[in-house]
Amino acid sequence: TGDRQEYPAFDVLPAKLKAFTYQNVVLNTSAAVSDGAMVGGNMTERALSNYVGSYRMEEMLHRDKFIPFNSANKYSWAAVSGNSERYCLAKGAPEKLILQTSHYWDAEGNRQPLTEEMKKTLDDRMLELAADAIRMLALCTYESDIEGDELPADGLTLVGILGIRDEVRPEAIEAIAEVQDAGVQIVMITGDRRETAVAIAKDAGLLQRPNELVWTSAELAEMSDEQVKLELHKLRVVARALPMDKSRLVRLAQEMNLVVGMTGDGVNDSPALKKADVGFAMGSGTEVAKEAGDIVILDDNFLSIKQAILYGRTIYNSICKFIVFQLTINFVALLIVLLGSVIGTELPLTVTQMLWVNLIMDTFAALALASIPPSETVMLEKPRRSTDFIISKAMRSNIIGVGSIFLIVLLGMIYYFDHSTQGMNVHNLTIFFTFFVMLQFWNLFNARVFGTTDSAFKGLSKSYGMELIVLAILAGQFLIVQFGGAVFRTEPLDWQTWLLIIGVSSTVLWVGELVRLVQRIIHKKDRNEK
Question: pTM for the full model?
């Protein structure tokens, strides 16, 4: 209170202060009120509702006028009347309202002068609380009518200053660290005062280095766009932020060709949510914000944003793996058929055989690679630029390199069979067809871990879709070879031939495993040296 008396709970407040506090909570609010209790509202309003608990006044006052919270003024106020009384209730940022305060209510319910020395004492105490990540809300009254929508510059009476602490969720701290490791810069944009924002940012792990920046909205407004761009990479906190600050930061970051995600829950956040590359609206936010956002975070938890990044990168990687697998088959199949025709031999692959290959390449591969469970290792990858072509240099090298090796081996088989005593008969063409399919079968395992140094067998037991697809390909190939006959231009193979084809073609997987093993050893050595 104005005389620096501190009350740890609502129940121990003196009667007059308790009545004013309750009225300010339930009458000076945008949330719905039913039977004297607040319904819904934002996090602050719900915290205030929990604070007053089951307390109810016998005779409720009537709200005659209400001016909701304004980001510029940083307060809301309501004119109330009843019991032959009429006055106004104000609620907002203490550093704003205390400047307009001349008196305070004491424990006996009397108005007492609030001197500049007392204001200085209050400010010192608020700085101490802010350093403990506690944000504050001032409650005031005004005993006269107000013309217009703004409170007078002087004459308010301080009821008290409420301290509210938003505990940082333990899982959010871990999620923030993982997102930062993923190459994502996180900036906390908050309406809290600078000291409170800094304390929360430190608790959350956002502020860790001396060169990281904290700006207030006023400081940001004084900076030119070019100055902001130069320092943006070091920015971690914007305190006492206004809605236009979010929109400005989104615009400047996009001008720097950065991909921007923005969170918000209020109507004023809608422009920034809509302008951002990805707008994250809070589940407890307004419907306007949810409409403007791209993704709604139902639990208002930063962990969900981390999960969105995790699954987004996993899906993108699955697409890349599918492209690598598919284009490798296309590259080989196209050139095999083309060169086979040029050489003048029997057509290496028939139309029906190509249909089966396409089924493996498109449907089965898509299902198999889409069933790969998310791996936390994707959070260690560097972000990709939005302008990057989806087929990266590594993908292109893999497609051309592996495809060329397959092509050389298969052309060698065609040459060998064509110059053998039996020639390109159905038996040899069946072996060729089966070997071609088995090369792609084993390469599917390599494609599954493309872009990583993991073993192809890592997490395979959790990829139930992959297991089913592998069995379906093997079973399908066996049935086509053994019973396809003239339709697929095949004839049954004995078990020795099957084992030979499977064993020789599996070299594709073992070579891939060896390469990834060497890469793991090199990466481990590099990490140890660092």
Answer: 0.77
